[in-house]
Amino acid sequence: xxxxxxxxxxxxxxxxxxxxxxxxxxxxxxxxxxxxxxxxxxxxxxxxxxxxxxxxxxxxxxxxxxxxxxxxxxxxxxxxxxxxxxxxxxxxxxxxxxxxxxxxx
Length: 105
Description:
Strand content: 25-35%
Number of domains: 1
Largest sheet: 5 strands, antiparallel
Shape: globular
Low-confidence stretches: none
CATH topology: TATA-Binding Protein
Distance between the termini: 20 Å
């Protein structure tokens, strides 16, 4: 499970945004399991998202389909990065920088 910080101002409607962005970025139906939202798309057998305990982080659990073709993997990865950009408010570069600063603590 991976935890992503959400930019200030983006956490206000995080619960709604994370579900709408799943529909927008992946174009698939979202299944609700308790307070978790799940989809299956392309190279992702399972993408499970929920709001973190403090309401300011996004918790993501993924399970990959090992048999997916390279083209499907690239498309899925592109859509996943776009999803994280929309929901967290941080670009890929900013997320990497934040994760490195957390690891160095």
